[in-house]
């Protein structure tokens, strides 16, 4: 069975095309569905094996980035989303998608039932749009970053400063839920955190954009990177390969069992 991906969009979403393409290149065809359609037909969530929350400026980033999208999910789709998490559906939220997952409280712990972390204004007070070096946390539980080496990714946001109380930061670090850190921390995030997962490693949110690194020439330095860089799978796509492999293995185990 080919894994099927749901990408959610609404007014102001702008990375759904890249995200759908990344999942498709990794082997999981994607359907982009408007949030209002899913609210009208919540059982559609059961058709999908993977879910992507795309980046952008949903609802104009009004109130705070991701807040309105998160509230709509909270009041209209929370139970079906939790059911998908309990079914083991991997979820990916990039940038605005991460802001949504954080504000909804699906990260860092979907069963906490409260918001524990946020993405606040960048420390500089400015929108930052550039490629930046990432450190992959080797012992994290995250299935999406498994086996990845340190790499560069593009970032583009004004509200990306990861912020949480010290006890939450201590807990997610001790629990292997910090998956990605900035090497030069351009936005002032607590403990350099760029991406975190839930305790199962399946729900993952990050501020940078792996879906914008689908081809070697996406990297601004690609002409200086050498032969190998041009022939290997771009690291951005490896995130999606990891999740697709996870789903396929799970399907095979279910058939075998
Ligand atoms: N790239 C994105 O997803 C958009 C940025 C985001 N809404 C912000 O904080 O500015």
Summarize the structure.
With 257 residues, the protein is α/β, with parallel strands linked by helices.
Topology:
Elements: E1 5-9, H1 16-25, E2 30-34, H2 35-40, E3 50-53, H3 67-76, H4 78-86, E4 91-94, H5 96-104, E5 118-120, E6 128-136, E7 151-157, E8 161-163, H6 166-174, E9 178-182, E10 193-197, E11 203-206, H7 227-231, H8 235-256
Parallel strand pairs: 1-2, 1-3, 3-4, 4-11
Antiparallel strand pairs: 5-8, 6-7, 6-9, 9-10, 10-11
This protein binds glutamine.
Glutamine binds next to strand 7.
Organism: Algisphaera agarilytica
EC number: 6.3.5.3
Pfam families: GATase_5
Main traits of this protein?
single chain; 257 residues; alpha/beta; Rossmann fold; nine-stranded mixed β-sheet; two-stranded antiparallel ribbon; 8 helices; 11 strands; 31% helix; 21% strand; binds glutamine
Number of helices: 8
SSE run = EHEHEHHEHEEEEHEEEHH
**Residue share in helices?**
25-40%
How many domain regions? 1
Largest sheet: number of strands, sense, barrel closure: 9 strands, mixed
